[in-house]
Amino acid sequence: MSEFKSGSNLEKVLKAGHFAFTGECGPPKGANVEHLKEKIAHLKGMVDSVNVTDNQTAVVRMSSWAASTIMLQEGVEPNFQMVCRDRNRLAMMSDILGVSAMGIRNMLCLSGDHQRFGNHPQSKNVYDIDSIQLIALVKKMRDEGKFMNNEDIDVSPKLFIGAAANPFADPYEYRVYRLANKISAGVDFIQTQCIYNMEKFRDFMKKAVDMGLHEKCYILAGVTPMKSIGMAKYMSASVPGMDVPDSLIKRLQGAEKGKVAEEGIKFALEQIEEFKEMKGISGVHLMAIEWEHRVPEIAERARLLPRPKV
Amino acid sequence: MIIADRKPINELLEMIKDCKKILILGCKGCVTVCNVGGAKEVGILSSILKIARKKEGTALAIDENTLERQCDPEYIETVKDIINSYDAIISMACGVGPQFLSEMYPKARIFPAVNTTSFGGSLRHGVWAERCAGCGTCVIHYFDGMCPVARCSKSLLNGPCGGSSKGKCEISNEIDCIWDMIVRKKMEQGRLDDLLVVKEPKNWQTARDGGPRTSVREDIAL
User: Domains in chain A: how many in total?
Assistant: First the structure.
């Protein structure tokens, strides 16, 4: 019996006590394998695992399991994302078995953005089960070897189970309890929503640590460098559950012409330094949206290289 | 009650474009209460259609009638002697009415005048909102009388999701986040612990997912 639940690189890195560093990659809007491979190449050796998004913002893309499989072939460990919007429990369980069969060892369980945001707002949504129930389902399949209906599984899936947490959504007071619910459902690791309001995040983590939640799962802090003032303003005004303080927007506005992106990276690097020391934080999840080619530079400047071999 | 909105006039004109004589049939049930398909709305629709057809130069004869209910054979039967004398019947009842009419009168052409939207109630004069999804297994006792199945855009049983912001749903500032309301009520009443138990997946067999539903009351069924 292995000491590991899944044996994924991410699980080994975290269990060995290293400060984990994960990345993110959105599959192409098409079957463009070459473009996907290009994005993956930027991340190779730079991070411990890469999230592969599942029709993010409800926009149709290459399926997350297929892109995860391509990533695996390219020698990069995927963190397969699954949302509850598009699949009922049958499709979920068969994809869980499918990805495990293909050698995928991490899975992130999400509710998913509502289809109203996406490019097919006319679609029917599923939400047969929710993200917390999905966590419990994967755990049951992995640890008990049973389907949701209690029938036996012939060879259980091996997956390190992840979920998201958004300390910046409302009601704030409840957010730490929602994290606790994800832990009791069986989550192994958490990646937070992009953090910009550090003061609020410190408070959130203090509450989580006071409840001992950091001892029950690994918490990775979400970082997305701001590329422009427009991006910061858009996130502040138009992305639900996103908290971008005015002070950050002012800081970006104060940057010299042509240096806004650099200022955004500097802020991200300062955050990463603080997360390295923050109690309860086991790593950083870098969501460099369509900025995969900047990840090596950020990893280098954040002194997160080389990644541990475990 | 059942809430409905009247269909656009052009859609109705298209349905009846070949007709010379129609019956507009209202309903004194829910659609009267939500001001969409009662006797008053039958009269208004009749005038609008007549004027529109007159403009087109293709006159339309319209009779008007409003039944007690269109979800009960006993009332549907009351039009049996006249129904086949029309080119078409426009029912202003919810989606149930046209179907009861169609089943009882196989020769008649039946069209719906409304889009049936939900089970709900009146928030204020002229505004109605959904409250129930008719899932067949009520769970609102877990949520202090508020229903996340009907009112959470994702029907989450373990909410709120990461898109809840300032009491509103991620899909629109016009929609309250029901999970925000549930959590706040639990906190105010000091019963947040109720929400620290993970709710099991729902059995959707009693909802539409289990196929069309029939309720039988053995004690009174003939």
Answer: 1
What chain B holds in terms of domains, given with CATH numbers, is 2-118 (3.40.50.2300), 133-208 (no CATH)
Distance from CA of A123 to the nearest CA of B (A): 13
Selected residues 54-113 of chain A with any CB under 8 Å from a CB in chain B:
84-85, 89, 111-113
In a domain, A109, yes or no: yes
What is the C-alpha to C-alpha distance for residues A18 and B97, in angstroms, rounded to an integer?
Answer: 66
- How near does any CA of chain A get to the CA of B197, in Å? 7
Chain B's closest residue to A167, CA to CA, is B162
Does pTM top 0.80 for this prediction?
Answer: yes
CB B201 to CB A129 under 8 A? yes
Put simply, the answer to whether A240 touches B201 (Cβ < 8 Å) is no
Q: Which two tokens stand for residue A59?
A: 């926009």
The answer as to whether A309 is a domain residue is no
**Facing residue for B156 by CB, picked from A130, A174, A180:** A130
Tell me the per-residue pLDDT of A196-254, one tens digit each, with 9 for 90 and over.
999 999 999 999 999 999 999 999 999 999 999 999 999 999 888 899 999 999 999 99
Identify the domain containing residue A247 by its residue range.
Answer: 9-301
Residue A308: inside a domain: no
A132: CATH: 3.20.20.220
